[in-house]
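User: Sequence for DNA-binding protein below. Tokens please.
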Amino acid sequence: MIRERLINFFNACNVTSREMEKLTGIDRDKWNAVRARRRRVNEDDIEAFNGAFPQFAYWLTTGKTIPSAGQIKPERKNSGIDVPKE
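Assistant: Structure tokens for DNA-binding protein:
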């Protein structure tokens, strides 16, 4: 389920694997493999994701949100993601 939520994040926020590599330090090929469902998510991926996107940490691990605590899920309209572009 965590892998599916990560894939939802990629799709909703339009974040590339290359951008994820810059933000998390996890190789882009690993993120590509997650997106293609060829690789399972591990604890390093989760920790790196949570460090880069703390507002999605609770959602990633549980699928739930706590808006009053700033814990939201990514949505296309206003993800609040500011990913550095090349």
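The longest helix spans residues 2-13.
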